[in-house]
Design goal:
By secondary structure, the chain is an alpha/beta fold. Strand 1, helix 2 and strand 2 form a beta-alpha-beta unit.
Length: 169
Protein backbone atom coordinates (compact mmCIF):
# COMPACT_ATOMS: atom_id res chain seq x y z
CA UNK A 1 0.00 0.00 0.00
CA UNK A 2 1.26 3.42 -0.83
CA UNK A 3 -0.22 6.85 -1.25
CA UNK A 4 0.89 10.45 -1.21
CA UNK A 5 -1.26 13.53 -1.58
CA UNK A 6 -0.37 15.56 -4.68
CA UNK A 7 1.30 18.18 -2.51
CA UNK A 8 3.86 15.61 -1.36
CA UNK A 9 4.73 14.60 -4.93
CA UNK A 10 5.81 17.82 -6.60
CA UNK A 11 6.79 21.40 -6.02
CA UNK A 12 9.09 22.46 -3.22
CA UNK A 13 10.35 19.53 -1.15
CA UNK A 14 10.76 21.68 1.95
CA UNK A 15 7.54 23.63 1.44
CA UNK A 16 5.19 20.65 1.73
CA UNK A 17 2.40 20.61 4.29
CA UNK A 18 3.39 18.31 7.17
CA UNK A 19 -0.02 16.64 7.01
CA UNK A 20 0.67 15.54 3.42
CA UNK A 21 4.03 14.08 4.48
CA UNK A 22 2.43 12.27 7.40
CA UNK A 23 -0.22 10.70 5.15
CA UNK A 24 2.45 9.63 2.65
CA UNK A 25 4.62 8.07 5.38
CA UNK A 26 1.77 6.40 7.23
CA UNK A 27 0.26 4.82 4.12
CA UNK A 28 3.56 3.94 2.43
CA UNK A 29 5.77 2.78 5.32
CA UNK A 30 3.84 2.33 8.54
CA UNK A 31 1.23 0.08 6.88
CA UNK A 32 3.95 -2.42 5.89
CA UNK A 33 5.02 -2.71 9.53
CA UNK A 34 1.39 -2.99 10.68
CA UNK A 35 0.77 -5.72 8.12
CA UNK A 36 3.87 -7.61 9.30
CA UNK A 37 2.71 -7.32 12.91
CA UNK A 38 -0.79 -8.56 12.05
CA UNK A 39 0.41 -11.49 9.94
CA UNK A 40 3.23 -12.73 12.17
CA UNK A 41 0.95 -14.75 14.48
CA UNK A 42 -0.54 -16.47 11.42
CA UNK A 43 2.85 -17.51 10.05
CA UNK A 44 3.47 -20.34 12.50
CA UNK A 45 5.68 -22.18 9.99
CA UNK A 46 7.39 -19.12 8.55
CA UNK A 47 6.32 -17.11 5.56
CA UNK A 48 7.09 -14.21 3.32
CA UNK A 49 6.10 -10.58 3.06
CA UNK A 50 6.76 -8.67 -0.15
CA UNK A 51 6.34 -4.96 -0.64
CA UNK A 52 6.62 -2.77 -3.72
CA UNK A 53 9.33 -0.18 -4.02
CA UNK A 54 10.43 2.35 -6.61
CA UNK A 55 14.17 2.64 -6.27
CA UNK A 56 14.99 5.06 -9.04
CA UNK A 57 18.74 4.83 -8.85
CA UNK A 58 19.24 7.12 -5.88
CA UNK A 59 18.02 10.13 -7.82
CA UNK A 60 15.88 13.00 -6.57
CA UNK A 61 13.16 12.89 -9.21
CA UNK A 62 11.23 16.10 -9.91
CA UNK A 63 7.90 14.23 -9.79
CA UNK A 64 8.37 12.01 -6.72
CA UNK A 65 9.49 14.25 -3.83
CA UNK A 66 8.30 12.82 -0.50
CA UNK A 67 7.42 9.44 -2.00
CA UNK A 68 11.15 9.03 -2.68
CA UNK A 69 11.84 9.59 1.00
CA UNK A 70 8.99 7.25 1.97
CA UNK A 71 10.31 4.50 -0.30
CA UNK A 72 13.76 4.87 1.30
CA UNK A 73 12.09 4.48 4.69
CA UNK A 74 10.18 1.44 3.40
CA UNK A 75 13.49 -0.21 2.47
CA UNK A 76 14.73 0.27 6.03
CA UNK A 77 11.45 -0.93 7.53
CA UNK A 78 11.65 -4.09 5.43
CA UNK A 79 15.17 -4.76 6.72
CA UNK A 80 14.07 -4.40 10.35
CA UNK A 81 11.08 -6.66 9.70
CA UNK A 82 13.50 -9.18 8.13
CA UNK A 83 15.67 -8.95 11.25
CA UNK A 84 12.80 -9.49 13.66
CA UNK A 85 11.04 -12.14 11.58
CA UNK A 86 14.11 -14.21 10.79
CA UNK A 87 14.03 -16.26 13.98
CA UNK A 88 10.45 -17.20 13.11
CA UNK A 89 11.30 -18.09 9.52
CA UNK A 90 9.53 -15.00 8.22
CA UNK A 91 11.14 -13.21 5.29
CA UNK A 92 10.64 -9.60 4.22
CA UNK A 93 11.68 -8.38 0.79
CA UNK A 94 10.81 -5.64 -1.66
CA UNK A 95 10.48 -5.52 -5.42
CA UNK A 96 11.75 -2.25 -6.88
CA UNK A 97 9.68 -1.95 -10.01
CA UNK A 98 10.26 0.40 -12.86
CA UNK A 99 7.45 2.88 -13.52
CA UNK A 100 4.17 1.15 -14.35
CA UNK A 101 1.04 2.80 -15.65
CA UNK A 102 -1.25 1.97 -12.75
CA UNK A 103 -4.06 3.75 -10.98
CA UNK A 104 -1.54 4.99 -8.41
CA UNK A 105 0.69 6.37 -11.18
CA UNK A 106 -2.22 8.42 -12.49
CA UNK A 107 -1.91 10.55 -9.36
CA UNK A 108 1.67 11.57 -10.19
CA UNK A 109 1.81 14.70 -12.32
CA UNK A 110 4.26 14.39 -15.23
CA UNK A 111 4.60 10.61 -14.73
CA UNK A 112 5.94 10.50 -18.28
CA UNK A 113 9.17 12.02 -16.90
CA UNK A 114 9.82 8.66 -15.25
CA UNK A 115 8.78 6.50 -18.18
CA UNK A 116 10.83 8.59 -20.63
CA UNK A 117 13.95 8.28 -18.50
CA UNK A 118 13.50 4.52 -18.26
CA UNK A 119 12.92 4.19 -22.02
CA UNK A 120 16.14 6.11 -22.68
CA UNK A 121 18.26 4.26 -20.13
CA UNK A 122 17.32 0.64 -19.58
CA UNK A 123 19.41 -1.97 -21.40
CA UNK A 124 16.33 -4.20 -21.53
CA UNK A 125 13.14 -2.81 -23.01
CA UNK A 126 10.91 -1.46 -20.23
CA UNK A 127 7.18 -1.56 -20.94
CA UNK A 128 5.27 0.59 -18.43
CA UNK A 129 2.02 -1.18 -19.40
CA UNK A 130 3.31 -4.69 -18.55
CA UNK A 131 3.19 -5.49 -14.84
CA UNK A 132 3.80 -9.22 -15.43
CA UNK A 133 7.58 -9.15 -14.79
CA UNK A 134 6.93 -7.48 -11.44
CA UNK A 135 4.19 -9.97 -10.56
CA UNK A 136 6.53 -12.84 -11.47
CA UNK A 137 9.21 -11.47 -9.14
CA UNK A 138 6.70 -11.10 -6.30
CA UNK A 139 5.55 -14.70 -6.81
CA UNK A 140 9.19 -15.85 -6.70
CA UNK A 141 9.84 -14.01 -3.43
CA UNK A 142 6.67 -15.41 -1.89
CA UNK A 143 7.65 -18.94 -2.89
CA UNK A 144 9.97 -21.42 -1.22
CA UNK A 145 12.39 -20.84 -4.11
CA UNK A 146 13.39 -17.68 -2.22
CA UNK A 147 13.59 -19.40 1.17
CA UNK A 148 17.08 -18.02 1.93
CA UNK A 149 16.40 -14.45 0.78
CA UNK A 150 15.35 -11.76 3.24
CA UNK A 151 15.96 -8.06 3.71
CA UNK A 152 16.59 -7.63 -0.02
CA UNK A 153 15.38 -5.33 -2.76
CA UNK A 154 14.94 -7.13 -6.06
CA UNK A 155 15.08 -4.67 -8.96
CA UNK A 156 12.66 -5.41 -11.77
CA UNK A 157 13.32 -2.34 -13.85
CA UNK A 158 14.88 -3.43 -17.12
CA UNK A 159 18.34 -2.74 -15.67
CA UNK A 160 17.79 0.96 -14.97
CA UNK A 161 19.35 0.73 -11.51
CA UNK A 162 22.60 -0.65 -12.96
CA UNK A 163 23.19 2.16 -15.47
CA UNK A 164 25.53 4.93 -14.36
CA UNK A 165 24.59 7.28 -17.21
CA UNK A 166 20.89 7.63 -16.43
CA UNK A 167 19.61 11.16 -16.11
CA UNK A 168 16.01 12.28 -15.56
CA UNK A 169 14.52 13.64 -18.76
Amino acid sequence: MAFAPRGALSGSYTGVDSGDVEVAFRSSVWTYAVLAHALTPLMTRGGSLVGLDFDAGGRAWPVYNWMGACKAALREASRYIARDGGALGIRSNLVAAGPLLTRAASGIADFDTLTSAFEATTPLRWDPTDAQPVADAVCFLLSDLARAITGEVLHVDGGFNAMATARPA
